[in-house]
Amino acid sequence: MKTAEDYLSGQVLLIDKPLQWTSFQAVNKLRWEIRHAFNIKKIKVGHAGTLDPLATGLLVICTGKMTKQIDTFQGQIKEYTGTLVLGSTTPSFDLETEINETFPTDHITKEAIHEATKQFVGEIDQYPPIFSAIKKDGKRLYEFARAGEDVEIKSRKITISEFEITRIENNHIDFRVVCSKGTYIRSLANDFGKALNSGSHLSALRRTKIGDFHVENALTPEAFIKCLTTK
User: Fold this and answer.
1) Per residue in 123-162, pLDDT tens?
2) Co-location of 132 and 147 in the same domain
């Protein structure tokens, strides 16, 4: 059973973020529950790497003095699993926005799908999605997108060390990716469609690892709160 002093001196919490939750919501929820459980007036709580609301999986949350390690954890290699859908695109590259364009897929073979992964392995230039929290001129990119404003987005160097196709079911493709900090899997899904002379968008995403931390060892927020309040 952890004490107030444990959380103040610093803990690393592995949380399995639910669908539709923002990373900010998860941090706020845990901060409030820890304060409430131990009658603490103030405690630092932060996360080591944002997950989109439509993604689930591993969120590393640090408390107290361990928040000083957040930058270290953020820089570690990450692993994701997910599903992309060939033949259509969305402005956000995932299901946050509606399909805006469709493309033929009859020419795409299973061999071509597996072969296409090779061009994304290694150090590559990637353009972040316009629907992202990256700042430009003091505004988040998604603010420009929602206002219908055009904005120039610069590419960034990222590294993908593994890109594996795990299942192909019609136009739905399951995959596993191991990548560096700053990689947008939504952008990878969009670029993958282009590589196959078609279109693609992300329909599901789950973060499974950050460095040596694994989602199998993570608790849902509800399970963590239950442990917190069990005397």
Assistant:
1) 999 988 876 666 666 666 666 656 666 667 788 999 999 9
2) yes
- For the full predicted model, state whether its pTM sits above 0.85: yes
- Domain co-membership, 22 together with 102: no
Q: Which two tokens stand for residue 95?
A: 């299901």
pLDDT digits (tens, 9 = 90+) for 46-71: 999 889 899 999 999 999 999 999 99
Query: Same domain, yes or no, for 175 and 93?
Result: yes
**CA nearest neighbour of 19 among 52, 50, 59:** 52
In which domain, by residue range, is 198 found? 78-210
> Tokens in use for 106?
């009859």
| Residue 11 CB coordination number (10 Å) | 16
Q: By the 8 A CB rule, do 210 and 73 touch?
A: yes
Q: 77: exposed, middle or buried (C-beta count within 10 Å: 0-12, 13-18, 19+)?
A: middle
Catalytic residues, by residue number, are 52
Q: 26 and 48 share a domain?
A: yes
Q: Which residues contact 182 (CB under 8 A, 6 or more apart)?
A: 156, 158
Q: Report the CATH number that the domain containing residue 147 is assigned in CATH.
A: 3.30.2350.10
Count: domains in the chain? 2
The answer to whether 114 and 150 are in contact (CB under 8 A) is no
Determine how many CB atoms are found less than 10 A away from the CB of residue 206: 19
pLDDT tens-digit readout, 91-132: 999 999 999 999 999 999 999 999 999 999 999 999 888 766
